[in-house]
Amino acid sequence: MKVLVTGGAGFIGSNIVDRLIDEGHEVVVIDNLSSGKEKNINSKATFYKFNIQDPKLDSIFQREQPDCVNHQAAQVDVRRSVSDPVYDANINVLGTINILQNCVNYKVKKVIFASSGGAVYGEQEFFPATENHPLKPISPYGITKLVAEHYLYYYKTVFGMDYNVLRYANVYGPRQDPYGEAGVVAIFIQKMINGEQPLINGDGNQTRDFVYVADIVRANILAIMDSSKDNIFNIGTGIETPINMVFEHLKNIINPSIEEKHGPPKQGEQRRSVIDCTKAHDILNWSPETSLMDGLRNTCNYFKKL
User: Fold this and answer.
1) Per-residue model confidence as pLDDT tens digits over 117-135
2) Residues 79, 80, 86, 92, Cα dihedral to 10°
3) Rounded to two decimals, what is the model's pTM?
């Protein structure tokens, strides 16, 4: 199978590309390298440096004729979406529409879309959130992810294009960018390794569902092969972890003498977030396999080798 991966030079996308190639698939990568890194791209993949909003994107679809598109490219920073919602919408909505229209035009059989299992639900009404939880995003990022899900439904209903949506929990692991605003695990690790002071936003009692990138990759592979009619899946652990606890674990792994320091809370961020992944288990035969402690140790080891 030929799979086109948007954002294939990024944290999650590049890990997916590696796994696809390991399993014998032909892979095409589209990435503008705004946050992805060329060194992450598997040498066996065909790479195009391109913006997903570019009207000339059709030239790549015409040339490559992919069977499946795995759409990971996105503006992923919640805080950036709050400060610049137009920028966020240009990438996450208009860019996605451009991808989907090309999928229809060139008869792509299936699209896998990376959504957000935290942001689309907003402040949760029950815990953990199932896929049927009310959708009330409180950030432009969450809104754009939800809008993209609606466009996928439209393209399936009108054009018959198959898709699976994977609503990720908080993904962490090797290749995560420690320099942006996204990815608290990577940010904490990099600062601790460099002897700098990590800053916990707010009181640190806000919770997240942390899922290791290898488990996310496996969910994507299963979603590509899935032939069921159910097409929206939460992908997380179902375990609610406070940011303070993550800090404490990393401190004990890297440097127990690091002090806990707090800053002001950030706008647009949820207080509590944890998702129920029973549906992914029942239909995709997927469950998380990496514990938080093992994942954190693996991620620390990766950053220490950089």
Assistant:
1) 999 999 999 999 999 999 9
2) -90
3) 0.97
Average pLDDT, the chain: 96
> Which residues neighbour 248 within 8 Å (Cβ) at sequence distance 6 or greater?
260
- C-alpha 208/C-alpha 237 separation (Å) is 10
Asked whether 14 and 39 are in contact (CB, 8 A), the reply is no
> By the 8 A CB rule, do 219 and 280 touch?
yes
Task: For residue 115, list its beta bridge partners.
Answer: 167
**Who contacts 240 (Cβ-Cβ below 8 Å, separation ≥6)?**
127, 128, 207, 208, 209, 272, 273, 274
Active-site annotation holds for 168: no
The model's pLDDT over 4-37, given as tens digits with 9 standing for 90+, comes to 999 999 999 999 999 999 999 999 999 999 999 9
The residue type at 198: P
State how far the Cα of 121 lies from the Cα of 56, in Å rounded to an integer: 34
How far apart are alpha carbons 67 and 58 in whole angstroms?
Answer: 15
Name the catalytic one among 87, 121, 141, 302. 141
194-206 pLDDT, tens per residue? 999 999 999 999 9
Angle (CA) 169 175 176, round 5°? 45
CB atoms within 10 A of CB 262: 14
Residue with tokens 């913006």: 51
Are 29 and 8 in contact by the 8 Å Cβ rule? The answer is: yes
Q: Beta strand pairing status for 241-242 and 207-208?
A: antiparallel
Give dist(CA 299, CA 244) in Å, integer: 18
CB-based contact 68:17 (threshold 8 Å): no
Residue ranges and CATH numbers for the domains of the chain are 2-172+210-237 (3.40.50.720), 184-207+239-274+290-304 (3.90.25.10)
